[in-house]
Amino acid sequence: MAFVRSLLAATAVLVAVAAAADGSRAAAAAAVAAPAAGRQFTKGGGDRREPYLFWPSTKPTPSVGPKPNETPVSCWGRSGSGAARRYCCLMQTPCGETCDTKGGRNAPAKRCVRKTCGRRVQCGMKETPGPVRTLEPKPYVTSTPRPTASRTAAPTARPTATPTARPTATRTPAPTARPTATPTARPTATRTPAPTATATPTSAPTATPTASPSPSPTAAWAFGDGWGRCTAANSRVRKEIRDLNTAERTAFTTALRTFYDSGAFDNFTTIHSANAAEAHGGSAFLPWHRYFLIELEDALRSIDPSVVLPYWDWSLDAADPAVSPVWSTNLLGGATPGACIPDGPFANLQAAQPTPHCVRRGFTARTTNGMAGVRFEEPAVIDELIAPTTSFVDFVEGWEFAHGGPHVAIGGADLNANFGDMFFISQSPQDPAFFLHHAYVDKVWADRQARNNPTDYAGTQNGRTVAASDNVPPFGQPVSRTFSVPCVSYAPPRSRRMTRSRGGRRVARATAVLAVAAEGTAKLSPMEQFARASGLSDARIEAAKAVLIAADVSATQQGLSIASASVTAGADST
User: Fold this and answer.
1) What is the pLDDT of residues 287-300, one digit of tens each?
2) SS3 for 413-437, per residue?
3) Residues 465-480, mean pLDDT to the nearest whole number
């Protein structure tokens, strides 16, 4: 009986060996079912449980294979084949910064950079592992600049071998260029303030700024930098130009003259002209010029960081703008019809567009009625425009129309031909009055935003309906970013604004309409002239006029406008 049992066992073994030799996995499994049961794999199902998928080259036997997501034991010590060590550094996810990304079985996606695989034991990776495909490195591109940011210690201490060479080669020139440019800009601001321009008329302002200041704005500033620097850390308050003290006034006029003379300013005129259709004749008028002013102000601050762009509240001079203090010799200088600027910091200022010429104006400054009877819009009428009862569409149409009055009056109130620079959209930024004028236009929009919803924006531009997400060319920013400007705010003017007309009386609407009609030509005609020169349609011009007339009538009814002063004492009151 014992002999029979031995014979049966031997027969079973021979059957198993024969099945294995034939490659029949099913037969082998049937023959040795009991011993194989203790070696089942923990991943996969049926005969598909194959842990060797984790190995880079050869199939290991199941007894030495790693469990899923587990590194072979040979990786952690100095023993083990080169393939096993390479696998440790190339394929193991928990190795942290060891590898850039996972790769295939035999073709790692990226080169190993770090030597440590895990468990604080080195893997022995001193040679380049296996076949490597050249891919863009992920983690180490972002980590390489850091040594340069920390400037000295970090790059030398850590990645001595590879990263030090790269940052030093590419980044060394940048620090050298910047320090050189910035110091140049500061001396310019410090030297120029000697208001030689005011004391010694023409030769000093031209000679001093032109020689050294030219490189400074170009090196330290480029168009487009302004919005990037418009942060709360760079916040400043724009004042009415009459409220500047002597130092502020001198710093502003000196920096602006320096920038004009540098030649870098010509780009402003070109950009304003090239984008005329996007910047005028619609709702984009306000956000476009807000971006434009921030760029100009940033350019001036690259010359003198203390400079803040002032605004000219010309509504304070509405009755007779030619005698405004802005035309004094310590601000914008005077004017003679058709002639160069005669005095002040901008005397004989030169312009490049459309051909080289001196900047000209078209009125007689510091003389009563020197603008041939032209009047600007008044504070009370502007208050009506920014009231909550006025829609944004009416506001922007009326306000853009009203802003044309100063353009025409400064550029050609007393001329019939050969108008001054302010008269033309393509040339207007060449007169320094442009920026003070448009800073006030921007302030009025800011005042409306303070009283109403600051994100209020509607209407059309070039025949299409506008949206806050519209891109504003060439600034590359959306309209919505102008709804809240972190770097700029406005101080109210200290000069007393008109609160009542001479009589101080409220009048009937019919009386107010007649009074506004009688006074209207002096204000509306130059506005309409500029609107037509800008290409506005008749329909838009009439709509804008209607908005302004309605605002003027309302202010006159309350006794707040110049027109109400012409109403006799016997007029009806309400």
Assistant:
1) 999 999 999 999 99
2) CCCCCCCCHHHCCCCHHHCCHHHHH
3) 96
| Residue 445 φ then ψ, to 5° | -65, -40
Q: State the DSSP H helix or E strand holding residue 124, giving kind and residue range, or none if neither.
A: none
The Cα 227–Cα 485 span in angstroms is 9
- Contact by Cβ (8 Å): 107, 131: yes
> Where along the chain do its domains lie?
2-39, 73-164, 509-566
Could you tell me if 281 and 337 are in contact, meaning their C-beta atoms sit under 8 angstroms apart?
Answer: no
Cα dihedral 247, 248, 253, 258, rounded to 10, equals 80
- The whole-chain average pLDDT of the chain stands at 72
CA–CA separation, 358 vs 350, rounded Å?
Answer: 4
Q: What is the pTM of this model?
A: 0.62
Q: Report CA-CA distances (Å) from 51 to 102, 302, 448.
A: 17, 65, 71
Output the 3-class SS for 337-405. ECCECCCCCCCCCEECCCCCEECEECCCCCCCCCCCCCCCCCHHHHHHHCCCCCCHHHHHHHHHHHHHH
Spatial contact of 198 and 267, defined as CB atoms under 8 Å apart: no
Q: Which amino acid is at 104?
A: G
Residues present in the chain in total: 574
Average of per-residue pLDDT across 147-159: 39
Answer whether 268's CB lies under 8 Å from 298's CB.
no
**Cα 554 to the chain's mean position, in Å?**
39
- The token pair at 479 is 């309209």
Ramachandran bin of 124, using left for φ above 0, alpha for ψ from -120 to 50, beta for the remaining angles: left
CB 458 within 8 A of CB 466: yes
pLDDT in tens, 99-112: 444 444 444 444 44
